[in-house]
Known about the structure:
Low-confidence stretches of chain B: none
Number of strands of chain B: 2
Order of helices and strands of chain B: HEEHHHHHHHHHHH
Strand content of chain B: under 5%
Number of helices of chain B: 12
CATH class of the largest domain in chain A: Alpha Beta
CATH topology of the largest domain in chain A: D-Maltodextrin-Binding Protein, domain 2
Helix content of chain B: over 70%
Oligomer: heterodimer
CATH class of chain B: Mainly Alpha
Order of helices and strands of chain A: HEHHEHEHHHEEEHHEHHHEHEEHHHHEHH
Radius of gyration of chain A: 25 Å
Distance between the termini of chain A: 76 Å
Largest interface: A-B, 34 and 31 residues
Number of strands of chain A: 11
Strand order of the largest sheet of chain B: 1-2
Largest sheet of chain A: 9 strands, mixed
CATH superfamily of chain B: MetI-like
CATH topology of chain B: MetI-like fold
CATH architecture of chain B: Orthogonal Bundle
Number of helices of chain A: 19
Shape of chain A: globular
Largest sheet of chain B: 2 strands, antiparallel
Shape of chain B: flat
Low-confidence stretches of chain A: 12-22
Helix content of chain A: 40-55%
Mean pLDDT of chain A: 91
Mean pLDDT of chain B: 91
Amino acid sequence: MKRMLALALAMLLALGCCAAFAEAEPITLNVIIAQYGPNTENWFLGNGMDGTNFVAKFEEANPDIKLNLEVVSWNDLDTVVSTRISNNSAPDILNNDNFSEYVVDGLLLPVSDYCTDELFADFFPSFIEQSIMDDVCWAVPDLASARALYVNTDILAEVGIEVPTTWAELEDACQAIVDFYNGDVYPWGIDMTTDEGQAAFSYYVWNNDGGFLDADGNLVVNSDKNVEAIEYAIGLYNKGFTNPNPATQTRYDLQDMFGAGKLAMIIAPNQLPSYLKDKSYEVNFATAALPVNEGAAPGATGVMDRIMAFKNDAYPDQAARNEAIGKFLSFFYAPENYVGWVSMEGFLPAVNSSVAALVESDPSFQAWLDVLDSCKFYPTANPKWDVARQGVIEVEQQALTGGDVKALLDDLQAKIDG
Amino acid sequence: MNTIPIRHKWEPYVWLLPSILLMSIFVVFPIGIVFKLSMSEISKAGVVGAWNNFANFRAAFRDPAFGTVMQNTAVWVVSVVGLSTLLGFVTAMALNAEFRGRRVARSIVVFPWATSLVIQASVWNYIIKGEYGNLNNVLLNLGIIKSAVNWRATYQIEFAWECGVGIFVTIPFVAFTVLAGLQSIDNAYYEAATVDGAGFWRKLWNVTIPLVKPSLTVCTVLNIIYVFNSFPIIYTITKGAPANKTDTMVTLLYMRAFYDNQKGPATAMSVIGFAILCVCAGVYMMVTMRKEEQ
């Protein structure tokens, strides 16, 4: 009997040890980060973060958490994530631009479950607003970029024209460039490809008092202002003022043409100077606000990406998991890490705590931060945004081949409402 | 003594087992999954739901681009398979003739086939680029043109370029398959035909083509399948733009699945494509085999 009791006690002890051992096992977080540029992977996994990498530094500071971090290219990101979701192996943390489809399927954790109050208060409020659906914040911004007009100052000086500020001035400038160079230089760059056609849409509608939403926040793309704006943009193409193939020439093609001095004006993000430098283009340029239609309020285009956390109901200790996710975010956004990340990729920050350090390292940041203040963002919190995004690109491409803008936008609106 | 017939009976299956296993895991099983998905509701995020009464198929047929894309696919398959078969046959005849440097010529012809399609398509994309394309550079340097020409002025021209690239990369496959057939023809047939007074065309119609037909049949069936399913050329050069006007079935379903978040209709399209291919390849094989039997 005693022997049996001893055996039972020994087994219990062993089980207890196992349990204790199991508790001490580190939590593993599966993280997917989007590849912003050639340095992203090196910063997270190589030695691009001051001779070490983010994962090693994080695990050293948090020995109870292991990171299984992958850097995935933007082209594959949605495919990878949806395949994982279909196989019930969604990542714990995801860096992506869209989030609403995950909310609709009930896959995300509310930010309040894992983000500390201190960190949450650090985000720019106007950015946080873009990630709220049904009064719940589902994601936090990781960075942003803003778009501006870049002009080749040598071309403008040679032709003898000023930087256009209105649509009428833009047409005059384009005509002057066409006349002067006889077709050797394209005056105006338009990217209506599936890559970024929605950005082209926003450049014109937001500078004509139009937009994607009505006063009540509903997706409305066929307003008169929008029709007028897109007809104007297509008119620039029809008059021969733009690059010849807006449906297949991406922004990167246009940036190369701008760098090579074949394109006089282009709307591009704040990373364009570093892009031109990396590719050894020598071109003199200046930045300016996007031209607006006479009398309309100017609207700069901002683009923002996000970090979100997925639910994992099978995980035994939800509180510990949430805490681990919170630690990941706090570590990522700590100025000593985040400033390096944002400046390395040439983006704009999403948290207040890093602004001072960024402006100190590069004073030109201040001008962009001011632009960011007045930026408008895509309505990504709307679950039908993807229909609108794909739809406006299709409208633009149909219009380029002779389609009627009003009829096309009306059809798209019916599809969105349907 | 009795064991020998039993062994003989089972032996083929034992040898086939590895292939059957591989085919089942990597071909049959995924096809089954796609069939199941095509009849299920799939959310934008990728969550697979319940059976949805063929709603994905209805959505696929109602897709505004479906008609244009079916037409494009037909033009794409017929032009690429037809012209590459014709030109590949001529190339094979040329490579079968005896001339100095035949080996070098054969190696050169195989290059386009040995290079990855994405690389080929990207290279052609650079060649026909308007502003800094190689074609414009060469013609400008030679003084043939005065200013850069837009080689892709309309989507019809762009699609024609894509078909051209498709033909260019498919010729080597046809040429080498036909060449293998040509080399197996006994010279005695030609000698006999020559004695009977047959000229080049007569020998071509009555000796070469009938004897090469088995290789040509296999090659054409494989080509129909490859070309129908070909993705890299169109995706690299136009991505189906403008507004799906240069898409084929495969590029459209890719865009719908991974760009437009319409995974359900996209899986339905892939099932429709699979059915079309089965019918086309089946009919072609039946017709050619029946003719051979006759």
